[in-house]
Amino acid sequence: MILSAEVECFVYEAQSLKQKRSVLKRIQTRLSNEYNVAVSELDFQDLWQRTCIGIVTISSNKVIAEQTMQQALALIDSFPEIERTNTLTEWL
After folding, report:
1. Which residues pair with 58 in a beta bridge?
2. Which one of 20, 42, 54, 92 has the lowest number of neighbouring Cβ atoms within 10 Å?
3. Angle subtended at Cα 42 by Cα 59 and Cα 92, rounded to the nearest 5 degrees
């Protein structure tokens, strides 16, 4: 089972691309380390207060894949400097 999510977010306090990338790097590192998911910025690379993050998890069990994705999304929500605005999940 492959579950992917496209997560659009606002980074309110970012005043430059460098600040935005700093926030994203911390989130990507924690997601990869804690939940063993693949993470990448998919869109809005040249905007400093908006981003689209792609997350993918693979599991032999659908329930485990869903739990992992929900935990990853909860981790994103735990960062006060970023707000998740739109999330699209899809089974592949």
Report:
1. 2
2. 92
3. 30
Q: Please name the residues in contact with 85: beta carbons below 8 A apart, sequence gap of 6 or more.
A: 8, 9, 10
Instruction: Answer for the pair 17, 48: CB distance below 8 angstroms, yes or no.
Output: yes
- 71 DSSP assignment: H
Distance CA 45, CA 51 (A): 7
Global confidence as pTM: 0.89
Q: How many residues comprise the chain?
A: 92
Q: What pLDDT is attached to residue 5?
A: 96
Query: Which residues, 6 or more positions from 49, have their beta carbon under 8 angstroms from its beta carbon?
Result: 10, 11, 12, 14, 20
Q: What is the mean pLDDT of residues 24-51?
A: 93
What is the DSSP code (8-state) at residue 47? -
